[in-house]
User: Which sequence fits this backbone?
């Protein structure tokens, strides 16, 4: 089922004007560069910040568990500060 959603997304993207698709790629590249900088600097980010970066709901982040992969990064649940869960990104080679 998840694959059909991805296929529909790709198909609908193909129908967009070239300029729109290029802008989407620029936005994706910016997102990946932000993730790379966060990982490189060893910054910890909150669930809501990570959700914004991934463009998902915050509950989708917290429900994934302690350790998982996203694109080119491993994502680790590091600690809790008050009501915030802090996550760390580490580049996968």
Assistant:
């Amino acid at each position: 089922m998840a694959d059909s959603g991805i296929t529909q997304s790709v198909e609908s993207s193909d129908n967009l004007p070239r300029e729109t698709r290029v802008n989407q790629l620029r936005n994706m590249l910016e997102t990946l560069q932000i993730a790379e900088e966060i990982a490189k600097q060893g910054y910890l980010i909150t669930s809501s910040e990570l959700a914004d970066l991934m463009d998902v709901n915050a509950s989708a982040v917290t429900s994934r568990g302690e350790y998982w992969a996203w694109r080119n990064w491993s994502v680790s649940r590091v600690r809790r500060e008050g009501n915030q869960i802090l996550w760390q990104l580490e580049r996968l080679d």
The longest helix spans residues 18-41. The first strand starts at residue 44 and ends at 46. The helical segments are 2-14, 18-41, 47-54, 58-62. The beta strands are 44-46, 67-70, 73-81, 84-91.
